[in-house]
């Protein structure tokens, strides 16, 4: 039987022979499960062909000029990129996102991918782009590719260096370095795009340019947009978006099929100077890069905070203010299953806490109560939405809100903006109809003050909750409660979705976290109302905790 490097790598990770981080374990488990279930197929010929090409035709171009010898982690990656196919024999993965620490051969590997797809991929008229914010940066991978093919006569004879690109006449293909805002942004038809050091792509420009290239892939049969990077310092960037998508996929909260995330990072930041932990972000540690190199870098990093931050970013792949999915799908699903069958009437006479997030008056608003019974927390959440906004918000958010309206999870409120009297009436209903004693209500301090006054005048104790890293203690306590299975979301799949949309943005220095949207378009209003309730529960527990247990 021919070797399958995906299975081989996965087996060595599982046995502990290879030290790997949680995301690498997750992605290779995903690949193996997908192959075994028949979700996709493995073409050994395609995988081996790509590996053999790299090892027989691609040379080092700096410091040495011998042929590349791929390590097992690289062979597994090449096998996943080129060997995993669909029922039609076409490659499954179109977006490949590789995060690996400095000194692990990123640029050389990217150059080898370009060489294979330019010469051997069978795509006539292939357009291959090396993309970066500035042309000088884009030239780094391009020049590595050029130097690589110059070392192999059979490749070099087929290529012609022109003013701005390299042209291969036999396949009518070109390889070109380009910078952002290229004049031909609307004319791209790429077979391969290589994005080097994606973490350095700042803000909207990076997001926009990535989007342009991604949308242009549709004209090809099996294109790839290949992004390879270490962690960086830019926030709210395309790196963050891809990382968050990857994190969500690997935690089971996403169904997308075309993204292949290969993320080498340490798991425990407290062990940033531990060689065994560093193997998780540096797969070539002790192979092509000696341990002594890392010991020297660690010694430098231990002398100053600035050097430590640089080391953690570039050798540990711990990004400043990194944002990841807060919960995995299994935890949220279990919370929803635990809440099935309960009704508000079951809790008549109970003490509880409440929360409210008003968001925008023309959007979605959420109010909730959290009730403890038998050591378990049960949350009931009511959403509100203007009547004339349902269709618009469905199209924008990709959520069929009309179904939740029919089920009563969303209450229609007002015509074009929410009538906050409906929110007030809901809390009064909790008190008068369901006989709930709401001891505290947490609210976002930016919500409508007249509603706060209205609720206060009716005897509710209102407490404002700032949405920032001050929520760290609550987030940590709440995460533990959820993972212990002690929190139930009662009959509310929309609230479950909002929990899955929550990211935890963490400062790598202070270790503080704050809840954010995992994606820009994601909705978390329901979660915000619940975290407001959990905040006042924690803040006043010494005062009201005995009542909240509802043990009598």
In short:
This protein is α/β, with parallel strands linked by helices and 552 residues long. The chain is built from 21 helices and 20 strands.
Percent helix range: 40-55%
β content, as a range?
Answer: 15-25%
- The largest sheet has its strands arranged as 5-6-7-4-8-9-3-10
Work out the radius of gyration.
27 Å
Give the count of helical stretches.
21
Distance between the termini: 67 Å
Structural class: alpha/beta
- Count of DSSP strands: 20
Shape: elongated
Task: Name the poorly predicted regions.
Answer: none
Major β-sheet, in short? 8 strands, mixed
Arithmetic mean of pLDDT: 91
Could you please describe the fold and organization of this structure?
The chain is an alpha/beta fold and 552 residues long. The longest helix has 16 residues, at 22-37. The chain is elongated and about 85 Å long. The termini are far apart. The mean pLDDT is 91.
Write the layout of secondary structure elements.
Blueprint: H1 5-15, H2 22-37, E1 41-42, H3 44-57, H4 72-83, E2 84-85, E3 95-99, H5 106-119, E4 127-132, H6 135-150, H7 153-156, E5 159-161, E6 166-168, E7 173-179, E8 192-196, H8 203-216, E9 224-229, H9 238-250, E10 259-263, H10 275-278, H11 291-301, H12 305-314, E11 322-325, H13 329-338, E12 351-357, E13 365-373, E14 376-385, H14 390-397, H15 401-406, E15 410-412, H16 421-432, E16 437-444, H17 449-457, E17 462-465, H18 472-483, E18 487-489, H19 493-500, E19 502-506, E20 513-517, H20 525-539, H21 541-548
Parallel strand pairs: 3-9, 3-10, 4-7, 4-8, 8-9, 12-16, 14-15, 14-18, 16-17
Antiparallel strand pairs: 1-2, 5-6, 6-7, 11-19, 12-13, 13-14, 19-20
């Amino acid at each position: 039987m021919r070797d399958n490097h995906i299975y081989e790598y996965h087996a060595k990770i599982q046995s502990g022979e290879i030290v790997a981080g949680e995301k690498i374990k997750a992605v290779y488990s995903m690949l193996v499960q997908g192959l075994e279930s028949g979700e996709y197929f493995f073409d050994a010929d395609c995988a081996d062909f790509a590996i053999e090409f790299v090892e027989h035709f691609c040379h080092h171009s700096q410091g040495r000029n011998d042929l590349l010898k791929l390590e097992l982690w690289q062979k597994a990656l090449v096998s996943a990129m080129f060997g995993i196919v669909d029922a039609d024999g076409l490659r499954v993965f179109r977006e490949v996102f590789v995060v690996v620490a400095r000194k692990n051969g990123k640029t050389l590997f990217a150059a080898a991918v370009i060489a294979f797809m330019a010469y051997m991929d069978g795509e006539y008229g292939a357009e291959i782009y090396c993309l970066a914010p500035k042309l000088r940066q884009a030239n780094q991978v391009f020049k590595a590719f050029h130097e690589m093919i110059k070392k192999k006569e059979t490749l070099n004879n087929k290529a012609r260096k022109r003013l701005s690109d390299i042209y291969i006449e036999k396949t009518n293909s070109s390889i070109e370095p380009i910078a952002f805002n290229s004049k031909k942004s609307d004319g791209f038809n790429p077979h391969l795009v290589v994005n080097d050091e994606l973490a350095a792509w700042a803000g909207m420009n990076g997001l926009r340019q990535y989007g342009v290239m991604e949308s242009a892939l549709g004209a090809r049969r099996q294109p790839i947009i290949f992004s390879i990077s270490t962690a960086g310092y830019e926030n709210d960037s395309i790196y963050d978006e891809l990382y968050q998508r990857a994190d969500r996929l690997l935690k089971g909260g996403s169904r997308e099929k075309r993204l292949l995330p290969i993320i080498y990072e340490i798991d425990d930041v407290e062990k940033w100077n531990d060689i065994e932990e560093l193997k998780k972000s540096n797969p070539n540690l002790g192979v092509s890069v000696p341990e002594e190199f890392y010991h020297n870098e660690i010694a430098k990093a231990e002398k100053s905070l600035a050097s430590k931050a640089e080391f953690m970013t570039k050798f540990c792949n711990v990004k400043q203010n990194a944002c990841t999915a807060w919960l995995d799908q299994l935890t949220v699903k279990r919370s929803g299953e635990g809440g099935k069958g309960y009704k508000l009437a079951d809790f008549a006479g109970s003490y509880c806490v409440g929360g409210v997030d008003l968001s925008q008056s023309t959007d979605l608003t959420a109010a909730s109560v959290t009730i403890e019974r038998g050591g378990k927390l049960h949350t009931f959440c009511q959403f509100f939405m203007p009547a004339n906004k349902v269709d618009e918000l469905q199209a924008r958010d990709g959520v069929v809100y009309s179904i939740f309206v029919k089920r009563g999870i969303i209450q229609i409120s007002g015509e074009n903006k929410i009538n906050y009297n409906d929110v007030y009436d809901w809390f009064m209903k909790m008190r008068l109809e369901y006989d709930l004693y709401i001891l505290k209500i947490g609210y976002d301090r930016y919500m409508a003050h007249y509603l706060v006054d209205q609720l206060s005048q009716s005897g509710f104790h209102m407490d404002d909750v700032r949405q920032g890293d001050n929520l760290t203690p609550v987030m940590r306590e709440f995460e533990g409660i959820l993972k212990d299975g002690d929190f139930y979301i009662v009959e509310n799949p929309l609230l479950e979705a909002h929990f899955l949309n929550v990211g935890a943005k963490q400062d790598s220095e202070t270790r503080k976290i704050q809840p954010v949207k995992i994606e820009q378009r994601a909705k978390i209003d329901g979660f915000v109302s619940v975290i407001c309730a959990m905040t006042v529960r924690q803040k006043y527990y010494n005062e009201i905790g005995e009542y909240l247990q509802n043990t009598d």
